[in-house]
Amino acid sequence: MATVMDFEKPVLEWENELNKLKELNESSDLDLTKQIKSFEEQVQNKKKELYSTLKPSQKLQISRHPDRPKFLDYINLICDDFIELHGDREGMDDRAIIGGIAKLEGKPIMIIGIQKGKSTKENLEYNFGMPQPQGYRKALRLFHHANKFHMPIVTLIDTPGAYPGIDAEETGQGAAIAMNLREMSKLSVPIVSIITGEGCSGGALGLAVSNRVMMLEHAYYTVISPEGCASILWRDAARFADAAEALKITSKDLLELGVIDEEIPEPLGGAHNDYSETAMSMKKSISKALDELSKMSAEELRIQRYNKFRNIGKFIES
To answer: What is the reported pTM?
Structure first.
């Protein structure tokens, strides 16, 4: 059964009424074709209005939708001939981060992403999309491999944050993320990142020091989860909606603030409603960005990346 979020209940009611009208048209002698067409247009307009005026807390729900496409769903829709590369060369292979070589419109790229599961079994395998240090070290190995062979890098990010467990701390979680931030800034190839769902804290940033940072329309990107922020500020995680509003986590807010470079549209209602359409929009944006970045020299790419992150942020003096 499809998951219906609380704010979508009116949509469900509209669609139920539409289905009743269609059933009546089929089971009776009445010709309700015109009424059905008119009502379909009304429902579509109401849905467009609803999804174009969502609050940050409602976008948060869409970004976490259990049926939202994951990294492995996108791979074959965006790329061809994907070959996964395993391991951090220190004896570990974190399944929360998956990467490898693929072809995008016939050209080789290195594509790396954070993977979540769709079932309890898969979520245990992928640690609910929370990478451990060995995952970031694997990503770093693949970054260096791409740099050596002059392949552009694409990263897809969907994580509630890096794994905060004791094991991760003992094996150098903070150092692993910091190493990625430093090394990504020095790479000589184009890097494009897309926040596809959740983009939370250093767990997301560890794959997002890029020349172009983009977001899907209903994704979010933030230094801390709204629940975590509410717990710290108000000692009440239930005030996450207030925190989501204050944090400016949506693609529109972050585009205005200069944190991201592009908002990628999603199908009406969210990416989970049409994987192919979402992937094609992402592919178009990735290809355009790589075409632009490919005209830059290695030094220009590094300088552009450095300046991009140095100039992020706005503040008000009072």
So the answer is: 0.92
